[in-house]
Every structure is written in structure tokens, then in C-alpha cells.
Amino acid sequence: MWREYPKSVASIAVERVYENEPCVFFGRIVDPANLPIWEIHSRIRQFAEAPIETIPSFRKMLSFARWPRPVRRALLWLGLNLPRMRPGQFGTFGLSVYSSLGAESLHPLTPLTSTLNYGVIDSDGTVWVRLIYDHRVFDGATAARALDKLEKVLTGPILAELRGMGSRSLVAA
């Protein structure tokens, strides 16, 4: 059963080192469309830099990993297939990017309805943005319109917000 949700929940993939091993954790941001850029940036930096134990979704993942595999699989199935649970457990869309490592993925695998990723930013500021989506949920034309709208928002209101920040850098935020 597919459902539209009143608020989107971004699931952000972040690589962190835990017990001397690189691990991927997922931080969630509720209703990112209604947050200022600096707030989204601040939360993503927290996912990347704060102690792992201080981030609730990371603690939850670590606790979940301790359960036996059959129990984990059953809980994953429930979280993905019970519509009320999905936003709180997994988010409504994903963001997975590793372009800072000089690489990009054409089609990352995801259990979510849609995941956004982008490649390495060129010296002229252009970048390839990809929307990976479940064709059973929406059509390619819907995805194309969403990408067109994203481009307009990025080059319009978001660019204006970034320019309006003036000397207040996101690095300092």
C-alpha cells in the first residue's frame, strides 16, 4: 500500500567511523522543505561530526544491529510495508552522495520510493543530479517534472537565500 505523507522526511546517508570501521548511518530531517538552508546544513554537519551516541537515529541503528538477523529482517519488512511506520523509520525519500570522494553512482539501490544523488560538481558549477525512483509509485514524467522543479528551486529561491546570507558562511553555521 502506497501513501502520500503530509510532511516529507529526508533520510541522509552519512559515512562515519565506528569502532575503527567505516559505517553508513542514516540521519533523518523532518519537513526539510520548510527549513532554512543553514538549519539543514547544521543538521547534516551534526550527522557528520557529532559523537555517534548523541544522534538518536544512529543510536537506534546500533541497537537494531544487535538483534538476531531473523528479527531484524522481520522488523525491516514491517517498517517498509506498514505505511504509518515508514516515515519515522526510514524517511519518505533519501539522499545519498559521495561526490566529495570524486565518485558518483548512476543508480544507488534503495528501499525508499525515491532517492536523490548527484555527481561531482564541475569547475563551472554544473552538476548531474539523479532521481532514483520506484516506477510502481510514480511515472517517469512525474520524476522529470520533479527534477525540473528542483532545478528551478536550486537556481531561484535557494540561490537567493545563499546569496542573502552574505558574509555568514555555511562553514561557520
Keywords:
single chain, five-stranded mixed sheet, 5 helices
- Rg from alpha-carbon coordinates: 17 Å
Number of strands: 5
Number of helices: 5
Give the strand order of the largest sheet, numbering strands 1, 2, ... along the chain. Answer: 2-1-3-4-5
Biggest pleated sheet: 5 strands, mixed
Q: Which percent range fits the helix content? A: 25-40%
Strand content: 15-25%
| Strand and helix order | EEHHHHEEEH
Structural class: alpha/beta
Q: Low-confidence stretches at least 5 residues in length (pLDDT < 50)?
A: none
Please, could you describe this protein's structure?
- The protein has helices at residues 37-49, 56-65, 69-81, 86-89, 140-164; strands at 9-18, 21-30, 93-95, 114-118, 129-133.
- A hairpin with a 2-residue loop joins strand 1 (9-18) and strand 2.
- The chain is an alpha/beta fold.
- It is globular and about 50 Å long.
- The chain is 38% helix and 19% strand.
Give the structure's gist in a few sentences:
It contains five helices and five strands, in the order ββααααβββα.
